[in-house]
């Protein structure tokens, strides 16, 4: 059965996030209205302790709409636009994704999982391998280079905005797809299929970046699988992004 406490946390956090967005002028009532299907579908999908197929597919579809900023009524504030962090870096724009913040507020309490049977030794090893493999592969493929140095306030702004996007991605891929929708295939197949889909989602950046995202996705998924929780996967994903931003050329070399 659905944990009522988790649903109440989701209700309170999402309402608070929606109210703050309204007061800040980052959304309209039409945007906040997405909370109705978010919370309803979340409760229906998990009412029996697992995701039923049709509500799960509806959750994925709604999550993609918000992740792609396609739900009307949002005006995500731009934190910086077309900024180059090195001479031959691709330009980078950063937005505070209020629509994704509502997604996280409504679903994270429902999907964060439990760490009662966590295998932290395996998760820790996977974390180290994931960080080393993705960085070495990125350097080898020439996608980025060692380039430390960043203003403190820039890192803080990036860290806050990026955490929202990371949490939304982990909810969709490791929370919905791996842990629920693909669960009937078995944990191994759910793990690697989700990682491949995660990599394909990054294909518009470049083929090389899609390969790196797939490797990283294997790490995020394994950590979520072994710990039974999204929190370690979110932490690894976010931490790796911060390492990339602060110590290497960002986002990619031209």
Q: What does this entry look like structurally?
A:
Strands 1-2 form a two-stranded antiparallel sheet. The radius of gyration is 18 Å and the shape is globular. The protein has helices spanning 4-24, 29-32, 35-45, 53-67, 98-111, 120-140, 152-181, 187-201, 207-227, 230-247, and strands spanning 78-83, 92-95. With 254 residues, it is mainly alpha-helical. It contains ten helices and two strands, in the order ααααββαααααα. Helix 1 packs antiparallel against helix 5 (98-111) and helix 4 packs antiparallel against helix 7.
User: What's the Cα radius of gyration?
Assistant: 18 Å
What summary fits the major beta sheet?
Answer: 2 strands, antiparallel
Bin the helical content: 55-70%
| SS-based class | mainly alpha
**CA-to-CA gap between the ends?**
50 Å
How many structural domains in the coordinates?
Answer: 1
Determine the mean pLDDT. Answer: 90
Shape, principal axes of CA atoms: globular
SSE layout and pairing:
Blueprint: H1 4-24, H2 29-32, H3 35-45, H4 53-67, E1 78-83, E2 92-95, H5 98-111, H6 120-140, H7 152-181, H8 187-201, H9 207-227, H10 230-247
Antiparallel strand pairs: 1-2
Helix pairs in contact: 1-3, 1-5, 3-4, 3-5, 4-7, 5-7, 6-9, 6-10, 7-8, 7-9, 7-10, 8-9, 9-10
Structure at a glance:
With 254 residues, this protein is mainly alpha-helical. The chain has helices at 4-24, 29-32, 35-45, 53-67, 98-111, 120-140, 152-181, 187-201, 207-227, 230-247, and strands at residues 78-83, 92-95.
